[in-house]
Amino acid sequence: MDKxxxxxxxxxxxxxxxxxxxxxxxxFKTGDWRSIRPVLDKEKCIYCGxxxxxxxxxxxxxxxxxxxxxIADLDFCKGCGVxxxxxxxxxxxxxxxxx
Amino acid sequence: MANKxxxxxxxLAVAEAVKLCDTDVVAAYPITPQxxxxxxxxxxxxxxxxxxxxxPVESEHSAMSSCIGSSAAGARxxxxxxxxxxxxxxxxxxIAPVLRTPIVLAVANRALSAxxxxxxxxxxxxxxxxxxxxxxxxxxxxxxxxxTIMSFRIGEHPEVxxxxxxxxxxxxxSHFIEPILIPEKSQVDAFLPPFETDIxxxxxxxxxxxxxxxxxxYTEVKKATDDILLGSQKIIEQVFAEFEKVFGRKYNPVETYxxxxxxxxxxxxxxxxxxxxxxxxxMREKGRKVGLVRIRLWRPLPxxxxxxxxxxxxxxxxxxxxxxxGVPEGPVALEVKSLLYGTPNAPKVCNFILGLGGRDVRRAxxxxxxxxxxxxxxxxxxxxxxxxxxE
Lengths: 99, 391
Hints:
The complex is a heterodimer.
Chain A lengths: L35 E5 L9 H5 L5 E3 L1 H4 L2 E3 L9 H5 L5 E5 L3
Antiparallel strand pairs in A: 1-4, 2-3
Chain B lengths: L5 E4 H11 L4 E4 L6 H12 L6 E4 L3 H13 L4 E5 L1 H11 L1 H5 L4 E6 L13 H4 L7 E4 L3 H16 L7 E6 L7 E4 L4 H7 L26 H30 L6 E4 L6 E5 L3 H14 L4 E6 L1 E3 L3 H8 L4 E6 L10 H10 L7 E6 L9 H17 L4 E3 L5
Parallel strand pairs in B: 2-3, 2-4, 4-5, 5-7, 6-7, 10-11, 10-13, 13-14, 14-15
Antiparallel strand pairs in B: 1-8, 6-12, 9-11
Helix pairs in contact in B: 1-2, 1-7, 3-4, 10-13
């Protein structure tokens, strides 16, 4: 039938065994699962890297020795809030995503 | 062909068939009444008669996980289990068909607990009937060997690539010594080409298997798998025909016995079919128009062949060897009723549960159900009965 919903691929276009080239996850933006997002207070951040280490999805990216902080890639952050919980300086706030 | 049958336990014959098929990987956990199959395979590997990796896993869940991995790597893969073992595999059982891993699984059918029971019925395989596996049933030792060889050919066929369960009744077949023709290796080689697949883990062409299927893809993946399973019947029939050419033994998705002019047809699956044939002969001698239809191919369900085989009878007595709790009907009867519903002059269908947890199924039971089916069909009353239940 005609596509009338969120279907991504037709049955006949699916790869046999439903497999994919490695690395395809980067094309699958999971950020829209999020209901709250982390907001960093750069003034309070001490660049300890706890958010980077604890993030279960590895979305935090090191901004380097000049910037001295880590930023969450919101294309993939699911808003779990582990970073905010673990931050020793409490400089990450989880803010509600408005639709 | 080796033209003389040898006396061999059916489990060992299945293991010999796995050897003749040059299986690459066996990952298995022993469980009664399947144990002799994998026990003999471990001997064959240890003694150098089969050049395979034998993985003595710590559970059936791991056995099926290992099998999916090895099949995904392009290895011809075999395992065997029974009852609780199949139940423990359940989580992985549903994954193998979608990943298109043509594992061959011999199931020595045994009752599921509770109560603990090591004997034969079909409750184990019925618990995975919806998973997407091809399922075939053997009625005797020769068929068990033949179907093992054919299972590899069917499952690995480029248009199929699905896992196959080859079902033998626990003890009734698995532990019996029967005269069995063991084919020559050259014949098996001529019939079964080496396993080649492009759906595999390959260092030169890396692939991820076992992906997340979000709401945007899950429906289509399920439909694709079902399409392949339904479409596999055509290939299965081709493989049966090829097998007959090489080995001279004929197999059909639906087997029949004296059913052409039968007013009452008994429908069976598995080793009790041979007892039923004797009972049919005895009833025929007394002038009763009773015939037998046997399901060889349980998945995909050969709907058209069953409609054709049963359609002309007045009454069909479906034998089930599993109780669907909460529904007054066994699993085979449910499907038979469904496929006959709406067909012109559909026969009346009665359902009899027999042989649960290893209770003997005798010729007298088939005579009883043939008579009872006619009576029940006439009065239009309750058409479901657990035969011989002491209450």
